[in-house]
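[Solved] Which block belongs to which protein?

Original post:
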Amino acid sequence: MKPKRIVVGLATVALTLGLGACGTKPSPAAQNPPTNPAQWLSQSPSQKTVTFKVYAGENNGMNFNNYGHGDMTLTVPANWRVTVDFVNTDNAQVHSAMIVPLADHVQMNIASSALVFSGASTPDPSLGTNYGVHQSFSFVANKSGDYALACGIPGHAAMGMWDHFNVSSSATQAAITVAKS
């Protein structure tokens, strides 16, 4: 009987610590994502590369990095290689990320939209990913214009889980701008 109590005790501890059914702990980024926009971007202008860190569902909301409804803009110079490091920080819902035409961000089933750039989404954007899961995707931003970074879960973008993704032919560096609160 004692070994059963130990096993049950370990299962209870695992669930209490948030280890989940698969026995993995959420990533530190899911638990404590940075709040300063400067920490969401790293770039090498000489190599024409940029990495954006995208935290989905901050405070269990419909947002990326705590911004939604287009209140954040990620800008990248045309023809740069973009890497998006994505983490779902929402412990209540699955989320995903994809770059779609701006006009499509209000569609209920946005995952059926064509991606603007080949490879510009997390795997299976209509299914999303669970809390704490880290995923990356990379693409070349070879078409200038204003697009949307949107969650592909049906209804999420329509509820505000989208922001601007701008590819600029005149920019010389990547940038993140956010609406003033």
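(Second protein starts here: sequence line, then its structure tokens.)
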Amino acid sequence: MEHINGFKATVTAVLAALTALWGWVGWLVLLWILCMGMDVGTGMAKAAKQGNWSSSVAREGLWRKVGSIVAVLLAFIMDLFLAIVVENLPGIEFPFTYHGLLGPLVLCWYILTEAGSIAENAGELGGPVPKWLKNAIAAFRDKIDEQADDKEE
């Protein structure tokens, strides 16, 4: 029993440290990583069930995951760039401090994209997936796209 309490205390301490270090954005990153893993797992299970598992198709899917990681990193780099520019432009004083917007938005978009793929895979594995859940995921993802498009104009 003491080992279980020690394990619980260790997990709690690690989670508290991560929260202190990353804040809520860190939890988005962990959620995204979890969703990517679930998508890969359910995608491979679906392909195996259908009898068409292919290492080249799996490899292509993993390359897409690498591309999404690069896109998220780029969004956070751009957030850092914007924060530096807003803070240090000579002669211009902004009435706000920029803490980042692009990284969390891109993360949310990818989480919703992965969630849609997981729901699709779950359905093809035979699990009942409510249509309203699929619609909600698509609506949230589209709303993020719409909000980002409105900001560009």
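Accepted answer:
You had them paired correctly. Confirming on the second one: The chain is about 85% helix and 0% strand.
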